[in-house]
Amino acid sequence: MTLFGGESSSEDSPIIGDSTPPENLYYRTLNLLQEAIYLLDGKGRIMFANDRALQWLGGTSNDLIGHHFYESPWRIVRAAGIPFPKENFLEKILGEEAGSFPDLEIVTASELSFSTSCKFDTIKTDNGQISYILLSFFDETNSKKVQSHNLQLAAAVNDTADAIFVTNSGGNIEFVNPAFEKLTGYSLYEIQGCSPNRLKSGLQDQTFYKRLWETILNGETFRATVVNKKKNGDLFYCDQTISSTKDSAGKIISFVSILKDVTEPMEMQRTLRVTTERLRSLLDNALEGIFAVYNRQVIYGNPTFFKMLGYDPNSSSALIRVADILVDRDQRNVLNGLLAETGKIQGEEVHLLKKDGSPFYGTLRVFAHSQNPGYLEGFLLDQTERKMIETEKDSYESILRRSQKLESIGLIAAAMIHEINNPLTIVLGYSNLLAKSLVDPKLLKYVDIISAETDHLSKLVKDLLLYAKGDGTSFEKVDPYNLRDDALALADPLLQIEKIRVEEARERESLPLILCQSQKIKQVLLNLLINAKDALCTEVTENKLLGIDIFGIKGQSGIVEKIRFEVWDNGPGVPQFIRSAIFDAFFTAKESRGTGLGLAISKKIVESHHGSIGLAEKFGKSSCFYFELPIDCKTPV
Q1: Among 89, 111, 380, 501, whose Cα sits 20 to 30 Å from the Cα of 5?
Q2: What distance in Å separates the CA atoms of residue 8 and residue 111, rounded to the nearest whole number?
Q3: 452 and 485 part of one domain
Q4: Cα–Cα dist 555/273, whole Å
Q5: Residue 334 has pLDDT above 90, yes or no
Q6: For the PAC domain, which residue ranges apply (predicted)?
Q7: Do 98 and 185 reside in the same domain of the chain?
Q8: Alpha-carbon distance 635 to 637, whole Å?
Q9: pLDDT confidence of 79, banded at 50, 70, 90?
């Protein structure tokens, strides 16, 4: 019997490769196959090898046809991992009618190694003798690689700590890995064929899921942090990634979802956020000002700190330099010395300057960081009210002591007026009589001196009584400019005699009425005008200039709270060495022309109105006296 039908007359029948024409359908079919095909006779000689066998395993028809199978240029290295020469291979085939070798490793003539499998079949004669052997070799190298890759991929999927599940194109779950089962509590058996909706927590709205489906159906990868629900109802956070897989035609066939459990870090973030909010609340509501400084610049301050110093924490003006608030250089040097020596400042009393220029008193604690030079953290406790109370207390005590002294002086002065006025009147009267009767110029000069000194002594006694006891002038609301005009009217004759020109450096503004003892305030203005006149007459020979300026001082609300009066001249100013004493009683710079009580009386009047008086610079010289009065002084001192 022949291989393709008919009878065989001899064991050594003609070789098919020689007798079968190329036009033979079977021959052409065998050459189209991807398997390597060999046809052997009953003795193992190669009768036919198709094109795939020649291309893959090596050799030519002339090298193979008619030669024994053992002589082919390729070799079998092992079968199922065990060394397996071709001799054993053929012996096994001859012992069976049909079979296969599923796991062969073959090395070709060009020394390339392949994984393959082999199927064989035998054709026997009527008497049972093998007449033909058909061998078919399949190249499984790529499939082995794919299989190995799939095994590695499966191992990775099963061993990964991230939960993975795969759904079909309809969204039903087909596969979950062990990490998914551990994370969600659902086994593959429980959730296979179900929708991932089982994991919904209800915390994502429909817009979220609409965006999810639009993304993955467009073939794009969806990523989001999602809150899902476990089988037992517990919620968990996960970073979820969903991507699609497609077939060779580009059609989506499944979706792969990877869930990375981020519950712990999310809980830590939430805890940190809550802690941070609580800490911020503590900082924002702390009674102490808390601040941080880097390179002498305030880089952080809680609201209390900025409020203490009059800054808006939300404004760019809140960027404060230390030198802007700690203006006393000596104090800065002391504090820097403490930091350099100990790395901290503990409970130091400090005098700072607020944004509006007003004083601030506080207790300061500061700590330096050795690992971060230039960085300081500190706490500031407001002591301004306490300091003001202490200062006011000291002031009241001082006023009380001074009042007690002045009361004694007042009693003395009152007695002096009664005891001295009569003799002074007599002396003054006789002086006038002598002046009328005397002709000698020298004697007349002496009489004039007696009269002048008698007038001076009388004025001194009256000023002393006024300084000690004051008067009972009532309070009334007046226009500040009327006070100015009345004082100038009184001083005008003297100013004209001395050829002193009066000017206003500022334009008049609309000012509120001021509650005060108008006669006393006029007395203060007149006293300052006379002092300015005397200074100009002494120091300036021409172009004598004097002025009174009045303007309002607004508080934080933007409303005028104080009125400032300034009396200035173009004289040389008050010498530096006497400035600290000019408001002391009985101090005078006019030699024999003054009593030394004018500025002291003025200071007392201003302070009785809760005001302040002082000396300022004008035109670069200390030639401006000023005083400030509150708009409404209902409780005079």
Answers
A1: 89
A2: 39
A3: no
A4: 41
A5: no
A6: 220-274
A7: no
A8: 6
A9: low
Q: What is the dihedral of CA 71, 53, 17, 39, to 10 degrees?
A: 70
Q: How far apart are CA 598 and CA 463, in angstroms?
A: 8
Choose the weakest-confidence range: 66-75, 221-230, 297-306: 66-75
Q: Is residue 393 in a domain? A: yes
Q: Count Cα neighbours of 459 within 13 Å in the Cβ-side half-sphere.
A: 13
pLDDT number for residue 13: 42
Residue 630: band (very low, low, confident or very high) from pLDDT cuts 50, 70, 90: very high
Of the ranges 101-115, 127-141, 227-241, 384-398, which is most confident?
A: 227-241
Q: How far apart are CA 259 and CA 281, in angstroms?
A: 36
What is the average pLDDT across 117-126?
A: 86
8-state DSSP, 570 = S
Give the containing element (helix H, strand E) for 292.
Answer: strand 289-294
Alpha-carbon gap, residue 515 to 60, rounded angstroms: 129
What pLDDT, in 10s, does the model give residues 3-53? 444 444 444 444 444 444 555 677 788 888 888 888 888 888 888 888 888
| Phi (first) and psi of residue 337, to 5 degrees | -65, -40
Domain boundary among 470, 491, 523: 470
| 56, 171: one domain | no
Same domain, residue pair 407 and 443: yes
Rounded mean pLDDT of the chain? 80
Contact, 625 vs 612, CB < 8 A? no
Give dist(CA 504, CA 38) in Å, integer: 127
- DSSP annotation of 543: S
Whether the predicted model's global pTM rises above the 0.70 cut = no
Question: How buried is 634 (Cβ within 10 angstroms: 0-12 exposed, 13-18 middle, 19+ buried)?
Answer: exposed
Q: Are residues 595 and 522 in the same domain?
A: yes
What is the per-residue pLDDT for 9?
Answer: 40
Handedness of CA 342, 346, 351, 357 (dihedral sign): positive
Of 364, 395, 366, residue with least CA distance to 378: 366
- For the segment 60-83, the average pLDDT, to the nearest whole number, is 77
Considering only CA atoms, which of 383, 395, 372, 378 is closest in space to residue 604?
A: 395
Alpha helical stretches, state H, 192-240: 206-217
Q: Which residue has the higher pLDDT, 498 or 411?
A: 498
Owning domain of residue 601: 472-630
Closest CA to 241 of 256, 263, 254, 231: 256
Lowest mean pLDDT among 18-32, 186-200, 204-218, 622-636: 18-32
Q: How many CB atoms lie within 10 A of CB 364?
A: 20
476-478 and 514-516: which strand pairing? antiparallel
Pick 22 or 504 by higher pLDDT. 504
Helix (H, G, I), strand (E, B) or coil at 598: helix
As a whole-number percent, the residues of the chain with pLDDT over 90 amount to 16
Q: How far apart are the first and last CA of the chain?
A: 145
Catalogue the E-assigned strands of 44-188. 46-49, 75-79, 82-83, 98-107, 113-124, 130-139, 163-168, 173-176
Q: What whole-number distance in Å separates Cα of residue 341 and Cα of residue 596?
A: 50
My answer on whether 494 and 505 are in the same domain is yes
Are 54 and 35 within 8 A, CB to CB? Answer: no
Q: At what angle do helices 598-608 and 518-539 cross, to 10 degrees?
A: 150
Tell me which of 248, 267, 286 is where a domain ends.
267
